[in-house]
């Protein structure tokens, strides 16, 4: 667990007293951080606790980058931008707890790589700031990060929509079947004095439970090895396009920030958790390191023909920014289209399921109660 300390300080440099938040493990680290600064600690108390694995989500990273980009584009330095964020009461305390550390380290004159090397910050944010050696480069790279986090947010919303709607449809069918099997049908049986056996609801409920268990197993296994997800008939097209979109988006970000295609690829592969991406592109990285021709290397990738085609076109231009711009947009468009098709398929499936349930219930009551009752009276 990490502690969010609220520290009252008197700052001789600013000639004022103010509270600051510092996210650290132990109180002793506060004094180490403030060492050699014209700062006097007046009071320390623990304000909150956070798990050591807690990181900034996309929304928080977007807040940081948007503000820094706006301020630096207005002519301020990175230090001035940090000052605005850490002294702004409307900024989340968790954000301030991390950035106050960067603020004091920049004040000490440490480089950006050291000043922002904290677990809570996104890896690409840290890396891009560390390679921004001039104000122009910093402003340009912050603009790239701004677009990057905006795209991450939009793609996350698309993924959530793709997952939440099918889950709600699946849950609705499950709830209807459970209500029919254990509540509605028994009540009808009691009311009519005749035991109604709606076998179809039992079969459907069994099918749904088996599907749920299989899906849960696939989800758990795929977390450690997402190659499994790329082999499921319906899921594979959706997931492949999504993971290739995130992969090309990250490479595109680094190339726009001034890195070579080899360094960009190497950085993304070192940060990815996708076994599918590693299985396809790790050999590419190794071949590029050995100095092999880039077009020949990418042409060897199996099942991803878009890379070899676009790389062969770029051979005559020598500009890979346009290539990865195209690939990023292509895979996002493919993912979005696959997602929309999946959502459109679910509505008729739901209607079919509900129609089968209603028709089977009506047939069961009619054939076993009314027809049965009529034959009994005769």
Can you describe this structure?
The protein has 378 residues and is mostly helical. It has helices spanning 28-34, 58-73, 78-86, 93-107, 112-115, 123-130, 135-192, 199-224, 235-256, 261-271, 275-289, 294-299, 305-314, 320-377; strands at 2-11, 16-24, 39-50. The protein contains 14 helices and three strands. The longest helix is centred in the middle third of the chain and has 58 residues, at 135-192. The N and C termini lie far apart (79 Å). The model is unreliable at 374-378 (pLDDT under 50).
Brief descriptors of the model:
70% helix; 378 residues; 2 domains; disordered C terminus; 3-stranded antiparallel beta sheet; 3 strands; mainly alpha; flat
């Amino acid at each position: 667990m990490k502690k969010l300390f609220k520290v009252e300080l008197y700052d001789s440099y600013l000639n004022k007293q103010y509270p600051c938040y510092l996210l650290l493990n132990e109180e002793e680290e506060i004094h180490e951080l403030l060492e050699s600064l014209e700062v006097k600690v007046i009071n320390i108390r623990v304000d909150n606790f956070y798990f050591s694995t807690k990181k900034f989500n996309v929304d928080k990273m977007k807040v940081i980058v948007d503000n820094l980009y706006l301020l630096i584009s207005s002519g301020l330095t990175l230090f001035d931008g940090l000052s605005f964020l850490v002294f702004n009461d409307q900024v989340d305390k968790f954000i301030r707890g991390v950035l106050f550390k960067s603020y004091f380290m920049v004040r000490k004159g440490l480089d950006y790589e050291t000043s922002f090397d904290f677990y809570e910050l996104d890896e690409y944010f840290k890396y891009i700031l560390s390679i921004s050696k001039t104000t122009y480069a910093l402003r340009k790279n912050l603009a790239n990060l701004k677009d990057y986090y905006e795209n991450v947010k939009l793609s996350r919303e698309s993924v959530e929509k793709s997952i939440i709607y099918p889950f709600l449809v699946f849950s609705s069918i499950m709830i209807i079947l459970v209500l029919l099997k254990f509540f509605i049908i028994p009540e009808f049986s009691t009311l009519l004095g005749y035991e109604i056996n709606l076998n179809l609801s039992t079969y459907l409920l069994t099918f749904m439970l088996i599907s749920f268990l299989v899906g849960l197993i696939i989800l758990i296994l795929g977390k450690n090895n997402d190659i499994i997800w790329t082999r499921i008939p319906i899921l594979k097209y959706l997931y492949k396009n999504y993971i290739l979109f995130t992969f090309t988006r990250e490479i595109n970000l680094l190339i726009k920030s001034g890195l070579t295609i080899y360094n960009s690829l190497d950085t993304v592969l070192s940060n990815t958790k996708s076994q599918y991406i590693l299985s396809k592109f790790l050999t590419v990285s190794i071949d590029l390191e050995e100095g092999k021709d880039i077009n020949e290397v990418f042409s060897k990738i199996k099942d991803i023909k878009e890379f070899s085609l676009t790389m062969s076109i770029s051979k005559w231009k020598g500009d890979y920014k346009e290539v990865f711009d195209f690939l990023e947009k292509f895979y996002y468009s493919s993912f979005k289209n696959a997602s929309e098709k999946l959502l459109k398929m679910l509505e008729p499936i739901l209607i079919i399921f509900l129609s089968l349930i209603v028709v089977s219930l009506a047939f069961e009551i009619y054939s076993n109660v009314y027809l049965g009752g009529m034959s009994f009276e005769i």
